[in-house]
Structures are given as structure tokens and as C-alpha cells.
Amino acid sequence: MTKRVLKEFKIEYLQVLDENGNCDEALMPKLSNDEIKKIYEMLVLIRVFDQKAFNMQRQGRLGTYIQFKGQEACQVGSAFALKDDDFIFPMYRNSGLLIARKHPIVQVLQYWSGDERGLKSPQNVNNFPISIPVGTQEVHAVGAAWAAKLRGTKQVAATYFGEGATSKGDFHEAMNFAGVFNVPVIFVCENNQYAISVPRKEQTHSETIAQKAIAYGFEGIQVDGIDVFAVYKAMADAVEKGRSGKGPTLIECFTYRMCDHSTSDDASKYRPKEEVEMWVKKDPIERLEKYMRKKGLLDDLYKESIASRSKDIVEKAVTEFEKMPAPDPKDIFKYVFAEMTNQQKEEMEELFDNQ
Ligand SMILES: Cc1ncc(C[n+]2csc(CCOP(=O)(O)OP(=O)(O)O)c2C)c(N)n1
């Protein structure tokens, strides 16, 4: 009889920028000043978009909208580490990611007004449609990554989901397959502490989401999801690993949803005010601004010009979007399958032809 420790594991946590915008130079990823400015400008643009989309929903100019306020660094930091021909498999909270991945803002607005054509990926960028069902995109990403591996294209696939999605079977199936087939996939969990009203501690008894990767035989890391440099670094490392045939990574971005779950939610019913206030102070954009000021990369003039330029870009897209003709309601029936079923034809006729 023998009793021994077979294996011990550790989970790393990465933060590059602290809350005061001080940077750990040893951990700082290689980014030029121009690249840092581009990252900043994208963070501001998607924040302006997010607020505008929310306002438009409240004014009846847009359908249900899912905000991502607070999670900008997760989406921009990871997007900047990918190439256009890498694949992304986003969730509903990823409008910011899509914009950072060159998806035209006008199309994002189109999608949130119920027009599926809004999700058609621009040429030369491999953006898959966002997934409304929780977690289904994770298995799709693994399939794409496996295909890339078999074809030897050196592309990676990144999939985005919340911590709530890690309770679903899809997540575990995707993680297991990714580990067994050693595919170049990156699981990006935006752990925003709540799945609608379910707090993180009631979602799983694991201390971290990152450690779930251990069971599937690959690396998981937790990063400060408010810190855009930490997200970028973890993502760049995972991308490099995937491209060089070393398999999948799970990145847990530890962050907070600084808004309601959706435009149909009221988070004040289940989240303590003090908790929200504590997190809101950690704002990802303000943290980067503090760093950039110290480095002489940002002054009031530049900050104002980026804010006003972002507003102009978003307003221009809104004007274009509102001039677009509405889609034909018959499309609901026409494009579910390549060819309509008899039942769909009957239903369409019943609804539209007797009017
Ligand atoms: C398969 C499925 N079940 C339930 C829902 C309803 N639903 C929408 S969002 C959500 C919570 C998901 O939380 P999380 O995965 O943490 O992501 P977050 O919304 O916090 O970004 C649920 C249960 C859904 N969209 N899909």
C-alpha cells in the first residue's frame, strides 16, 4: 500500500497595471506607443457605442440590447492579440469585441434592431455570429480550431463566454475535446461575477474559473480583466502557444458588469450598491488613462479629441443605420434552412398572404 501526491497544480494570476495606473515593466507586453494609443481609442469608441446603443433602446430606436460596460478591456485587449484571419466565436455581450474586430458599427446596430444581416462578417475577418444561447459557441470554436490544425493554417480560434456558461455541458465538452485533440483554441471567460442574478459563488465551488482547465489537461490563467495590458499579454501568449502547436488555453478575465444584465434587467434588485460602487471605481479606461498620462501619451486635449471623434463615428453610423430599409419579415421563414420546408411555406402564406 502506498499513498503519495500524484500531481500538484497552481493557477497564476496576472496583473500588469495596478489600480493607480502603475505598470510592472517586467510583465509589460511589447506594445509601441502607437499601439497603446490605438487600444485606448478603441476602448473609448466601444464605450461611447455602448452608451449610445443603451440610450437608443430606451428611446425605442433599438431592440433589446446587451451592454458590456466594465468589460471593455477584456474585449479590446484580447482582440488586439488576434490576426484578422483568426476566428472569433462571440457571445451576446461582445458588441465591443466585434467593433474591435472591424465589424462595421452600422451592422452591429442593425443586428440589435433584429436584422440578422447585421452579423454578416466583413470580408477578410473571421468573425462568427454572436451566440444568444449560452455557451453553444464554445464547441463551434473548438471545431474551427481543429479544422485549422488539420489544414495547417496556423489560425487560432477564440471563444468568449461568461462564468455562468462554464456550468453548461457545452463548456466541458469543448474543453475536453480541445485538450484531447490539442487544438489552437483560446477560451476567454469574461467572469463578470454574475449570471443575470446568480452571483459567482453560487455558480461554482471552484475558487477560480481558470482552474477548470487543469481537469482537461491544459493551462488556465486568471487575469485582471480591468487591466487591458494583462488581458493582451495573456491572450498574446495563448495565441503564440496555439499557433506553435502547443494547444488550448483558458483565460479567466476577472472583471465586473458595470451595468444591468440587459435592457430588460434591473441589477439593483440583486446587487448591493456598495459592491457596484467599489467596482465602478476600478474603471478600465480610467486605469489606462492614468498610465498614459504618466508616460506622456495622454493629455486633456488628446482625451477630448478622442471622445469627440468617437462620438462622431458612432453618430454617423446611427444616421446611416436609421436610413436603412427594414428587412422583409418573410426573411424569418426564408433563411432558416437553405430550402424552406413545406410547413414553413404554409406558415408564411398564412401569416402574410391573407392580409
Ligand atoms: C442555453 C441558454 N439558457 C439560458 C439562457 C438565458 N440566459 C441568458 S444570459 C444568461 C446568464 C449567462 O451568464 P454568464 O454566462 O455569466 O454571462 P453574462 O451574461 O454574465 O455575460 C442566461 C441564463 C440562454 N440565453 N441560453
Descriptive terms for the model:
single chain; alpha/beta; 9 strands; 2 domains; binds thiamine diphosphate; two-stranded antiparallel ribbon; 14 helices; globular; Rossmann fold; 10% strand; 7-stranded parallel β-sheet; 355 residues
Describe this structure in words.
This protein is of the alpha/beta class and 355 residues long. It folds into 2 domains: 12-324, 3-Layer(aba) Sandwich (Rossmann fold), CATH 3.40.50; 327-355, no CATH class. It is 45% helix and 10% strand. The chain has 14 helices and 9 strands. The protein has helices at residues 33-58, 72-79, 95-100, 105-112, 136-151, 169-181, 200-203, 212-215, 228-243, 273-280, 284-294, 300-323, 331-334, 342-353, and strands spanning 12-14, 87-89, 126-127, 157-162, 185-191, 194-195, 198-199, 219-224, 249-254. The strands form 2 sheets. It has a 7-stranded parallel beta sheet with strand order 1-8-9-5-4-2-3, sandwiched between helices. The protein has a two-stranded antiparallel ribbon with strand order 6-7. Helix 6 links the parallel strand 4 and strand 5. The mean pLDDT is 97. The structure holds thiamine diphosphate (TPP). Thiamine diphosphate (TPP) binds at residues 93, 132-134, 161-165, 192, 194-196, 261.
CATH topology of the largest domain: Rossmann fold
Describe the biggest sheet?
7 strands, parallel
Bound molecules: thiamine diphosphate
CA-CA gap between termini: 81 Å
In DSSP terms, counting alpha (H) and pi (I) runs of 4 or more, how many helices?
14
Question: Regarding CATH, which class of the largest domain?
Answer: Alpha Beta
Identify the strand order in the major beta sheet: 1-8-9-5-4-2-3
CATH superfamily of the largest domain: Thiamin diphosphate (ThDP)-binding fold, Pyr/PP domains
Radius of gyration: 21 Å
Give helix and strand order, one letter per element, not per position: EHHEHHEHEHEEEHHEHEHHHHH
CATH-scheme architecture of the largest domain? 3-Layer(aba) Sandwich
Report the strand count.
9
Unreliable sequence segments: none
State the secondary-structure class.
Answer: alpha/beta
